[in-house]
Amino acid sequence: MAYQFKLAEKLVILNDRGQGVLIRMNHIKKVFTDSKRRPSYFTEKSNESAVKYINRKFPNIDIRGGSQHLSSIQKQKSAVLEGLHSYYESFIDVMEFRDNVYELLNTIDACQCFFDIAVNFDLTKNYLDLIVTYASVFYMLSRIDDKKAIVGLYNCAYEFSNGNSDPSFPRLGQMFIEYDHPWKKLSEEFGPHTKSVTGALLSLRMLYPRRNLSADQWRSAQLLSLLASPAAMLSPTCCDTMACEYLSTEVMERWILIGFLLCHSSLNTNADSQNLWKTALRSGLYLTVIRDEVLNIHKLSEDFFDGLKGYSKRIPDIKECKDYVITNCGALRREKRNFLRNALKELTKVLEDEPALLGPKALYVFMALSFSRDEVLWLVRHAENIPKTKTPEDYADSQLAELLYHMEKLRTLLAQHRYVIQRYHLQYLSQYDALVLNDIIQGMYVCPEEESVLMSSFVSTLSAMSLKHLDAGEEFDLKAFRLDWLRLQAYTSTGKAPLALKDYPDLAKVMNMAQFHTRMMDSVNELLCETADLSILCFHARVFEKLFSQSSEDVSMQRYLTAFPVICSHFSQCLHPLCPEETEEIENQSLKLCVSFLEEISRQTCTVVLEICAEQCNLHEKLLPKHSAETISTARNKKLKKSLPKKGDVPKEKPGTESLRKDRAIVTKVIVQMANYNQSTHEIARPSDLLAGIQAYVTSLHSLSCYINIDVTRLVKNVLLQQTQPLDSYGSQTITTLYTNWFLEGLLRQASSALIVHCPTTQCFVNQNTENEQSFHAEEYADICGLRSLAELIGPYGLKFLNENLMWHIISQVGELKKLVSDNMDVLVQMRANFENPDAMSDLQKKLTGCENVLKRMTIIGVILSFRSMVQEALGEIMDRHCPFIMRPIKCLKDLISPEGDIKVTLSVYEMASAAGLPCEIDPALVSAIANMQTDNSSIEDEFKITCLLLVFIAVSLPTLCLDPNSFYSRAQGGHQNNIHCLATAVNHIAAAMFTVQRKNTRIQLQEFLKVASSILLQLGQNVERMEIKNRDSIYVILHMVINLWRVTELLSFKNVLLYNSYFCVLYVIDSGAVTVLESRHAGNVFSICTPKKRLQRGAQDLHPHYGLNF
User: Fold this and answer.
1) SS3 state at 334
2) Cβ contacts of 124-129, under 8 Å, gap ≥ 24
3) Confidence band, pLDDT 50/70/90 cuts, at residue 659
4) Out of 18, 555, 669, 940, which could bridge 133 as a Cys pair, Cβ 3.0 to 4.6 Å?
5) How far is the CA of 1065 from the CAs of 513, 872, 971, 1077, in angstroms?
């Protein structure tokens, strides 16, 4: 009799169909509760009266009597039919599902089937699943508020189009009315099925309490531990109820609580039923219906039993269980998660080390995954609806990431070692299960034909399996084996079955074990979906993100955060063919969450990497030479027994103390800008310090590349290349811009006021000793080391930007100088013609205005050009070190070019050489800048005249420098205190650039300047009482600096001995006072001195060997 009813096939088909219908109902509810997705027919004002009319008259809708309300539907009947057709068909699916389930349940009752989860596991599970799915479908149907309007609108449109009502509409309408209160109706329906349902539920009375243990009981039993009994580590894990061991406790609770709602009579008559029901009620406040739909089971049960006669005693039981859950359940579940976190960690480590154990201990893996999944889902559904409790922290878990990570790790291990699992279980099936099963079958006294055929096929199927098939790469498909076993359960579980399965528990045990072994062969992924599916998190996005945020705040959990985006890849497992509309929505949600998690993980990773680099930079900075002074001073003071530091002073940590063990929390550092530029105070890090910091960062990144697959070289090159430009790819200022601004506004501006002095001897800028303490030491930034570091940091591109800004400042000064020349044009023309006539020059000198202004501006230009020369020299050294193969051809090409040749070719070569940091006789950048400032109105001859007069203006203004007390020459610095030695650089470069633009010979034109200057300076000696002779010798030195570059000493109006004497004077009289009396007098162009010639030679050569003075 049972054969023809096909109970097994119907249970499988209806369970799958019911799940699809349930998902459809959930989807319809979401669509119609979302104002953005709700169909337009329900939102348009013109249809408002029609919807109200249908809801009021449902299900007896008279389209003729209500034509005034339904006119809008008649106008758009085709659109309504098309838009609501899928929803209408979904409700018909519910009706058909109800009919088929109702028929099947009646057939099962008629066959007097018995259900025992430990014997006929698959039959019992499918039966209870069907009941819960059936109840869930009608509960979800009742949650769709617009179902009557949907069906009513569709039927009206159908009747307008076809002239008669849809055939299914009357039954649909009746079903909606009946299930307005679903639990009451369902309990009435299941009255006849109470015996079967209660029997199936009571079969859980041993399993569920055994599975629903506390963390302490798990710990005492050493659950999931492979190391608890090393001797049995290789023994296969076997038990009488293999599938029951990884059955979800959430599923069992859903069976128990919903089952006893539908068939509640045994709660008053059977103590086992009541104990089982109470135990389930103490497990939590909420049950999952589908996706994010949950039942507040205590409230539902209380309301339901409150309306039933004879169940008043159950109300206190429900309240007591609810109080227990609120008080204790959160802490109990937290302890379970803590236990599982450590248990899974141990299990993962053991299986990673010995993956062959996945064969005999595969059951442990699925148990661990199932237990963990239950705890995660419990936390998620309760975190979404946190009850009023004194310990809300029990519903948050900042360490959940570790549990999720180990779950994913176990899944990965199963996928990686699939061959190991298959090989082990294939041999187990063919060499053990088949033999034992054959012995059991042979010992049966009664075996009907149909059952005999099935059991014989079991033995033959298992016996035929061979390692050859596995090694050949054949795919196994044992679904037919498992379906036949379900059929056999159905045949042997009826009341009048000739072969009763309950009489052969060994057969059930072996077949249940063999069924698990077959799943290890071909459906590990399906089993993972049953035991480790967390796709429901897709519908609890807010809680999922909150759990991620909590885990990311815990430093120890950050290493496990990758589990969250991996879980997003499993969301597609919750899709069902009956609801294809969800596919795109779930894919988008999966991608959205995955991207947000990955972005946050990337951000935190970057933060950690930068903290590592910053820490390495700090450690490297402690070892810089500048910090040794304090240590040396402390040691020296201690040796000299000077005063010790005050008690309040904290001793400075020495380099290396970071290697001592310290608390992890101390390691957290604040990320700072390494350049540390402050525009208001003009403070910035030294280039050498910044370079050292960047090198420390790069070293750290290179060490990190050993652990992470990143191209550090490419990363660093891209970043540093952007820093050589004025702005980076985001439009932010770079270190090129920051240092350019600082050198222009901070250093050179003060140097132009002589607060900072250019020191040729040490090739740096130094601070003047003033009353106001300056915010920085110029020698720390503009020395050889600092400028080399600057060139290393910003390279030729960055220095080109710096040079362009320097040229802009120079050109602005040149423009002002031209204006001064124009103002004194007539006087300068006369002076140019009469420079050898002292009387005429004396009169003209009085008419000349702006001498100090000219010298001041020329000094500023000289300071800028001196700084640029230092920068160019630093760049040349860096280029020589990094790319000598490029520098050698450039140097050769530069040496082959002469300024007297084709000026265009010369300038193009000089431009290339200048970009590489090589010094040039003519500055191409300055030539270009001066050429660009030429106006259309001025002719080349006019510009040439102005340039010549400018040199005359400078020459005749030199005597005024003698009046400045800061004009004396400093032996230590190799220059003057007011930077006037930079005049020589300014005159040389400006003259060369301007005469090059005007196509004139620079050497010839400079002769006139030297004649005028030497003549004017010689005239100072004619009156020894004049104040101008005070620093005359220091001014003579400037004149030598001017001529040194061009080697035109023969053009001076006085002999070299005058220069020698000047050097002697400034070196020995002013600086050391070694000679007390010097008599000097002019006799034409002859200068005599009463000092031994050898000492004079030695004094001049000591400090200025680079001037090339030959005695």
Assistant:
1) helix
2) 124/200, 124/203, 125/243, 125/247, 126/8, 126/11, 126/12, 126/15, 126/486, 127/11, 127/196, 127/200, 128/197, 128/200, 128/201, 128/255, 128/259, 129/15, 129/251, 129/255
3) low
4) 18
5) 111, 33, 11, 11
CA distance 418 to 527: 13
Q: Which region, left, alpha or beta, applies to residue 522 given φ > 0 means left and ψ of -120 to 50 means alpha?
A: alpha
Cα(881)–Cα(789) distance, integer angstroms: 13
d(Cα 289, Cα 297) in Å, to the nearest integer? 11
Residue 287, H or E segment: strand 286-290
User: Which distant-in-sequence residues (6+ apart) come within 8 Å of 67 by Cβ?
Assistant: 74
Confirm if 726 and 804 have CB atoms less than 8 A apart.
no
End-to-end CA separation in angstroms for the chain? 133
3-state class of 799 per DSSP?
helix
CA torsion angle 796 801 805 806 (round to 10):
0
Helix (H) / strand (E) containing 567: helix 563-568
Local structure of 406: helix, strand or coil: helix
What secondary structure letter does DSSP report for 970?
A: E
Q: Please say if the pLDDT value at position 1093 is more than 60.
A: no
Alpha helices in 848-980, H assignment, sequence order: 851-882, 884-896, 903-915, 924-932, 940-957
Residue 1080 confidence (pLDDT): 33
Contact 255, 386 (CB under 8 A): no
Q: pLDDT band for position 11 (50/70/90)?
A: very high
Coil, strand or helix at 442:
helix
447-468 pLDDT per residue, tens: 888 888 999 999 999 999 999 9
The mean pLDDT value of the chain amounts to: 84
What's the CA gap between 57 and 148, in Å, rounded? 10
pTM for the whole thing? 0.67
Type and span of the H or E element at 555: none
961: closest CA among 978, 937, 944?
A: 978
Instruction: Yes or no: say if 697 and 616 are a contact pair by the CB < 8 Å rule.
Output: yes
Residues in the chain: 1111
* Cβ within 8 Å of residue 965, ≥6 positions away: 1031
Distance from C-alpha of 19 to C-alpha of 9, rounded to nearest angstrom = 16
Of the candidates 913, 839, 869, the residue with the CA atom closest to the CA atom of residue 760: 869
Assign 1108 a pLDDT band (cuts: 50, 70, 90).
Answer: very low
User: Does 39 sit behind a cis peptide bond, omega within 30 degrees of 0 on the bond before it?
Assistant: no
Which residue shows structure tokens 């050294």? Answer: 877
Q: Where are the alpha helices (DSSP H) in 975-1105?
A: 982-997, 1002-1018, 1032-1046, 1056-1064, 1093-1103
* Mode of pairing for the β-strands spanning 975-976 and 969-970: antiparallel
Amino acid 366 reads F
**Are the C-beta atoms of residues 20 and 577 closer than 8 Å to each other?**
yes
Query: pLDDT tens across 1067-1081, in order?
Result: 544 443 333 333 333
pLDDT in tens, 869-906: 999 999 999 999 988 899 899 989 888 887 777 888 88
Could you give the CA distance from residue 526 to residue 534 in angstroms, rounded to a whole number? 13
- Could you tell me if 489 and 8 are in contact, meaning their C-beta atoms sit under 8 angstroms apart? yes
DSSP class of residue 1108 equals T
The whole-angstrom separation of Cα 645 and Cα 634 is: 9
Backbone angles phi, psi at 749, to 5 degrees: -65, -40
703-744 per-position pLDDT tens digit: 877 777 777 788 778 778 888 888 877 777 888 888 888 888
Block residue for tokens 């302890």 = 335
Distance separating alpha carbons of residues 247 and 258, to the nearest angstrom: 17
Kindly report the backbone phi and psi dihedral angles of residue 290, in degrees, each rounded to the nearest multiple of 5, phi listed first.
Answer: -165, 135
Is the confidence at residue 149, as pLDDT, over 60?
A: yes
Q: Which of the residue ranges 704-708, 768-772, 958-962 has the most confident prediction, judged by mean pLDDT?
A: 958-962
Range among 616-620, 648-652, 906-910 with highest mean pLDDT value? 906-910
